[in-house]
Amino acid sequence: MTPTPSGPLAGVRVIELGQYISGPYAAKLLADLGADVVKVESPEGDPMRRWEGSGQMSPQFAAYNRGKRAVVLDLKSEAGLAALLDLARDADVLIENFRPGVAARLGFGPDVLARVNPRLVSCAITGFGPEGPYAKRPAYDTVISAVGGMYSQVVPEDLLRPLGPAFSDLLSGMSAAQGVLAALHARGDAGPGEHVEVSMVGSLIDFLTEAASTYLETGQVAGPDSRPRRAQAYACRGSDGLDFVIHMSVPEKFWTGLLEVLERPELADDPRFATREARVRNYDELDAELKATTALMPRQHWLDRLVAHDIPHGPLNTVAHLFDDPQIAAMRLVEEIEGPDGSALRVPVPSTRFHRSGRPALAAAPRLDQHGAELLGAPLPGAPLLGAAADAKPEASAPSAASTTPERSRA
Description:
Elements: E1 13-17, H1 22-32, E2 36-41, H2 59-64, E3 68-72, H3 78-89, E4 93-96, H4 102-106, H5 110-116, E5 121-126, H6 141-147, H7 150-154, H8 167-187, E6 195-199, H9 200-207, H10 209-218, H11 226-231, E7 233-237, E8 243-247, H12 252-262, H13 276-281, H14 283-294, H15 299-308, E9 313-315, H16 319-322, H17 326-330, E10 334-338, E11 344-348, H18 372-376
Parallel strand pairs: 1-2, 1-4, 2-3, 4-5, 5-6
Antiparallel strand pairs: 7-8, 8-9, 10-11
Helix pairs in contact: 1-8, 8-9
């Protein structure tokens, strides 16, 4: 019998104390690699469970929490803290995204965790890092994406509104997963663990490395059209209203090939477009020429010709069209699993393939406290582990409700 693939992180136990996106997404990435992720929630549960009035299993919660086991602990009770430390004692990783200092006030800061389990890799995700004038502020994704420069790169100046996905949440989740993996590698088989710090704003700046480095070196300020200009990337629309993109980059052959595709050889002699530097300067004028030409024929006409001339291009898919794209279908990036209510559920699968260790079978996100009895057993004497809150430890009772819950301040 062929063994079931278990993933490269099989045998790694992760404790996740996270809500909303950044912490849960980091742990979800590790679960996709085979880690056993235990999600610790308050008695009220992760607020994302109740997005859009959908009870305890919103589509958003399901997306960021698949493949995990779930327990409920009241971390302001002695019993809840004791149970968490018991879980940490046998774990490899603990991820939290409280505001700075909250974990320590609740009794499980990095120093405490290191004493409980010297081999533990602990990871704290915060909005603005552990110090500085913004450190204790609530840090939802919109705020971080504005402060961290992301919106200046994707939102046109004449459109004053946030756009796009939860950039800083997702990127900090990826940075956290990367940091955890590096720390596990450094720990090896016998070494000590360490504490990893990740900030949402720092993760954005890491991601905007080209814009940030260019400004620091030259003083040039990048905007939403800076990279498309340099990359010679264009969005066009066919006569049927369907959109596609072209990316010419640097090789001159793509420009000359595009002129053949469009049957516009005269553009080669236009001084506005005669060189790549001229095309960068006159990007808007060339954009108008391309749009005027592509509007004469349906999109598929242009896609076929672009393929024939080996020009980098692709349809501009919406999410509704994405999974019908023949390339995406060929890559088998969607899988059907059993949903939390027993019905069939289609989910996107991890795109990275491991040809020896494979990946674990995907599982739906857990119900609130679904694995409490399995992981915690009977309540500890003197106080309940699950359900109603018990009396708080004196040294752990100071934080406000908004700052005692992972990601309560971040969307």
